[in-house]
Amino acid sequence: MNDASSGPIAALDAVEVEYNGRQALGPFSLRLAAGEIVALVGPSGCGKSTALRLLAGLETPTRGEVNRMPGRGETAVVFQAPTLMPWATAEANVALPLELAGAPKSEAKTRARAALERVGLGAATGLKPAMLSGGMAMRASLARALVTAPKLLLLDEPFAALDEITRRKLADDVLALWAQTQPAMVFVTHSVEEAVYMARRIIVMSAGPGRIAAELTLGASLPRPPQFRTTALFRETAETVSAALEKAMA
To answer: Is 165 exposed, middle or buried, given 0-12, 13-18 or 19+ CB atoms closer than 10 A?
Structure first.
């Protein structure tokens, strides 16, 4: 883990977002240190995904300031739907960000295959999205996000459509992949237990327009040790976050 004193990888400073005159987010502030994993939890419509889009540079705030890493490939986003090109193989989908950045096709192909190996899809490089299960398609999306070695990885409820067993396995896989290069990571989820399992810092947002209702820091090591979900620390933290979320929704 890099020290936060080296400066934030990205920051939202008192941002507010309005849609058609209706305030959807803020004021909301967040400073993200290098290598840090932060989870955003909150009721539907509180602006979690909006905050993520601001960090990704996909949206601009109505008020406030966004500071983020410059340069192509510095930030990668994984959405709830895999958003893979249906006509292209898994390898071609993963190679696309590299090709768009100007990498030679041979290099993009080699790096795409290596990324797919990292997420356990080494045998599926030639398969198209229709031939992949939901979990495999999400792994391909993760490989595409990680192939550029981003310094900031943003995940918007990437496991929401998956069954519980697959969700848990992918949570462990994401943390193992994070441990290799330790990008800063912001993870949006509706699952309190998922937030507690994956993040070092958990931010509970109020009902829209979303503001910070509570913030907790979890000292347990990352990636999580085996059976972490059975520990008193996990259960107590999950209860604390759930109580903060219930209060925020009220």
So the answer is: exposed
CA 42 to the chain's CA centroid = 15
Task: List the chain pLDDT tens, one digit each, 250 residues.
Answer: 444 445 788 999 999 999 988 999 989 999 999 999 999 999 988 999 999 999 999 999 999 999 987 666 689 999 888 889 999 999 999 999 999 989 999 999 999 999 999 888 999 999 999 999 988 998 999 999 999 889 999 999 988 878 888 889 889 989 998 998 899 999 999 999 999 999 999 999 998 799 999 999 998 899 999 899 999 999 999 999 999 999 988 7
Which residue in 101, 96, 184, 180 sits closest to 140, CA to CA?
Answer: 96
Q: Are 47 and 28 in contact (CB under 8 A)?
A: yes
Bridge-partner residues for 201, per DSSP?
38, 217
Contact 112, 145 (CB under 8 A): no
Give the span between the Cα atoms of 83 and 119, in whole angstroms.
Answer: 17
Q: 27: which 2 tokens?
A: 């004021």
d(CA 230, CA 188): 23
Per the DSSP assignment, residues forming a β-bridge with 154 are 77, 186
Cβ partners under 8 Å of residue 89, min gap 6: 125, 126, 127, 128
Residues in contact with 58: Cβ distance below 8 Å, sequence separation at least 6, in sequence order: 77
First-to-last C-alpha distance (Å) of the chain: 36
125 in Cβ contact with 91 (< 8 Å): yes
Q: Reduced to 3 DSSP states, what percent helix, strand and coil does the chain have, rounded to the nearest 5?
A: 40, 25, 35
